[in-house]
Amino acid sequence: MADPMRILLVAAATATTGGGERHTADLAQALARQGVELGIAAPKGGDLAHIAANIGATYYSVPLDGALRLKTIRQLRHAIRQFAPDIVHAQGARAAAFARPADPRAAERLVYTVHGIHADRGPARFFKLTLERTLRRRAAFFITVCKADKEHGAQLRILDPQRTRVIYNGIAVHDEEKFQAKHPDAAAFRAEAGVPPEASLLLHVGRISPQKNQLQLLEAFAALSAQAPVAILALISAGTEDQQTALRAQIERLGLASSVRLLPSRPDLTAAFVAADLFVLPSLWEGFPYVILEAADAGCAIVATDVGGIREAILSPQEGWLVRPGDQAALTAALQEAIEDPGQRQQRAEQAKAHVDTAFTLEAMVEQTVALYQDVVNSIPGERNAHA
Q: Which of 89, 95, 161, 208 has its CA 20 to 30 A from that of 194?
């Protein structure tokens, strides 16, 4: 019998609140269930360390959340040598920035999952693009979580499209019976948000940042409120104290104090999605966000911007409303149309759920990732079919 495959996952964060971290956690637990010999290299403490302990994975504490230092690269190299993996799987740009120089065999066994492409954004974009292009050859294969990222990465020359496979993020989908069981929790969520029975509930989930574009969402909601005054907007948005203050100031400036709720983060958003009449994601850029899949799976209608891979998850106009990023008037119009036409909301939500529950499952994500691992291992001289 062939030995089990040895996979070292490299992650630069420990919490599982972001998409890349959620992906890493889901993948790690699924690989462990398949009998893979698993290692995880990540910063000290947090969710991934806890998950590693629960699934029996070897955990290496490496400060990958810090600056790109030679000392940290050496620490990761030591972990790689000690674990002796068949595959080193770097999750995201920061992890890959450490893993590619750390692994002496990166060109033949390192897999790099690109969780959204941000190298061309921000004041450090020249450095980030140069680093990605310089290290491009130090990966056996790339994974992008949507076709849009593959095309964007190829245009920026930070990945090789011939060595890139699209593997969508996947979720554990739920049937209607399970969501029916969540209705008492959904009623409790509406009560927490102070939503009157006659009011429509709009929901947004996302960290406070220019990317997620909450300030423009508030502008659009203010315009909507002038037309549809019986509506509540609930924001589940974590951020720094300064970011929270700026968000509250915008709410006050727009006269929305009575109709906008700032709610705390929570590990399970299912009740919030079931409770909402509409989920809104006005991002200026995205990869392939989990919240879109989760909202659709919960049967919640969606208004979002047409960025990144969102159009691959939600087909417009059959499955939701997609608008141009940064276009406040279009966002307001889409919100108004969705609020005023509950029949259309339900129809699009049902089609979105059917699409997501078929095309973006956790099982498919794991199966395709393991198949890629096997392809990479089979291409290594002297190791062909070692883990077939």
A: 208
Counting residues of the chain whose pLDDT is more than 70, the rounded percentage is 96
Residue showing tokens 């939600």: 314
Task: For the chain, list residues with pLDDT below 50.
Answer: 1, 384, 388
> pLDDT at position 388, please?
46
Report if pTM > 0.85. Answer: yes
